Amino acid sequence: MSWLDRSIAAISPRWAYKRMAWRTGMDVFDSGSRGRLNHNWNPSQTPNEHMKATERSLIRARAQDMERNSDIGGAIISAFERNVIGTGIMLQAKLPHDLPGNANGEMNKQIEDLWEEFCKAENVDITATQSLEEIEEMMIRRYIVDGGIFLIKVYVKGEKFPFKIQVRSVDELATKNTIVAHGDGNRIVEGIEIDQYNKPVAYHFKVSDGYFLNPVENVRIPAKDVIYLFKKTTPQQVREVSNLATALPRVKDANQFIEAVSIKERVLACLSVFIKKETPSGGRMGRGVQTGNEIDYSGVSLAPGMIGELNPGDEVQTVVPSGQASNAKEWITTLVRLVSAGIGLSYEAVSRDLSQVNYSSARQGLLEDRKLYKKMQKMIIKRVLTPIYQEFLDAMHLSGQLELPKYQQNKESYRAHVWIPPGSAWIDPLKEVKANETALASNQDTLARICAERGEDWRDVVAQRAVEQQLIRELSGPEPTDTDIPKEGADNEPDEENKDAEDADDAA
User: Does residue 102 fall inside a structural domain?
Assistant: First the structure.
C-alpha cells in the first residue's frame, strides 16, 4: 500500500477499500494481482543470492537429515549413483600416431596403465581411503544433497604420484566474514573471494584439527587449485543450493504420513483387555477413606495381548480414524511422483515400481532419465575429470614417470583423450539390435554413437571383432571352395566309358 492509499485509509477506510478493489479489477495478469486469491502470495524482492544465504545452511541440514533417515531420499541418491557413475567413467588416451614413440599406440597404453594405477586409493586420495571411482560416487551424492563439493589439488613429496586430490565439503567454508572489501577490490562472500566480475579468486576454508573445525582460523586456497562442482542458476549466484530443495517438503510429508499410518495399524493390531471395577479393591479405613491406590495412566501405552485395569468409573474410548490405510498407496504414490518430477526423474526410477508400465512407456521413461544422467556425466567429465587428468599428465611429465618429447610445445596433442561413461542395457535387446542395424544400413546412425551408448569404444569393438574372426579362420581351416562342394544332383557313379575301360583292363 502506497503512502497515498494509507493516507486515504486513515481518513475514509471505505473509500480506500473501494479504491483498492477497483485497482485490483484493472490488473493485467492474474499472477500480478494483489487481490484476495493472491493475498498470501508475497515473495520477497530481495536479490536472489541474499535470500539464499539465510536459508542455505538450513536446507542443507534438512537434506542431510533426509539422506540419513528417509527411504525416498536414499532411493533418489542411489538412482543418481547407479546411473551417472555406475562402474566408473573410463579413460582412453587418443594421442596421434605421428607423435614420437606412439607409432603403434604404445604411449596410449602406457598412459592408460599409469592412470589406472593412479586411480587407486593410496595414490589419488590424500587420505588414502578412497579410489577415484569412490570419490566420484561421493561427489555425485554430495552434489545432490549438499548442492556442491570441493576437490583440492594437492602436491606431496617423496611419492611415485606427487599429485593427489583432497575432498572437502561445503560445510568447511569459512562463512563468518560474509562481505569484506580488500584493497585490490576483491570481496569475500560466504567464504568465497571474488573479484569485480564475481569470478572466484580464492576459497577460504576452516582449519581442521583432524576432527573438529576451527571457526576462527581460516586457510586461503587459490581458485586455480580448487575444483568447485555446483549448479549455477542465476548470474549473481556464488554459492550452492541443495538440489533437493524443492523435493524436501514432499519427502517430509511422505515420511510423516507413513509414520501416522504405521502407528494407526500398530494400535489396531493390539488386541487388549481392560477390566473395569464398579467398586474399588481393598478395604476402607474410616469413613470414605480408600486403602487401595488409584491407577496412574501417564506413560501407559498399548501392547499386544495386554490386560489392563481401570479406575472405578473410568471407561476406554478409542478414536479410530478412517480412510488412512485404504488410500495410503495412492497418496504415497502421488507424493513420490511429485518428488521425482521435482528432481527431473521418472516415478519408476525413484520408486523402482514397474507394475504400471509397458515396454513403450518404460522405454520412454528411460530415455528421459538418461538425458539427465548424460547431462550430469558430461558436467563431471568437463569440470572434474578432465582438469584432474590434465594435472596428472603435467605431474607425470615433470616427475619423469612419462617420457613425453616436446610436451610443452605439443601439450594439446598429448592431452588428447576421450571418456567412456558406463553403458546401459535396454529392456528388449533384440528390438534395439534390429533398430541399430536398420539405422546403420540407412546411414541414420553411426557405430561410434551406438557403441558409446553401451559404454564402449567403437575402435576397440572393431579391432576385437577382427581378432576373433581371424582366430576362427585359423582354427576352422580355410573355407571350402566351389570345386570342393559337390553339385546338387551329381551322380557319383563312374560314367559308362570309364566303366568299360575298367572291365577291359580286368579281363586282360
Answer: no
Residue 370 phi, psi dihedral angles, 5° rounding: -70, -25
Tell me the CA distances in angstroms from 193 to 11, 164, 171, 176, 489, one per residue in order.
Answer: 53, 24, 16, 13, 90
Residue 11 lies in a domain: yes
Record the pTM: 0.76
Residue 137 lies in a domain: no
Please state the rounded mean pLDDT for residues 59-80: 92
Please state the domain count of the chain: 2
409-451 tens-digit pLDDT: 888 999 999 898 887 776 667 777 888 888 888 888 888 877 7
Grid cell of 179 as nine digits? 562481505
What is the rounded distance in angstroms from the CA atom of residue 429 to the CA atom of residue 486?
40
Q: What is the largest CA-CA distance in the chain?
A: 154
Beta strand residue intervals within 382-501, DSSP E: 417-420
The angle, 0 to 180 degrees and rounded to 10, between the axes of the packed helices 248-268 and 328-343 is 160
Domain residue limits at 26: 3-30
DSSP string, 281-324: SS-B-SSS-B-SPPPP-TT----TT-EEE--TT---------ST
Residue 473 inside a domain? The answer is yes
Q: Which residues, in sequence order, are CB contacts of 324 under 8 Å at separation 6+?
A: 260, 261, 264
Identify which of 220, 241, 237 has the alpha carbon closest to the alpha carbon of residue 170. Answer: 241
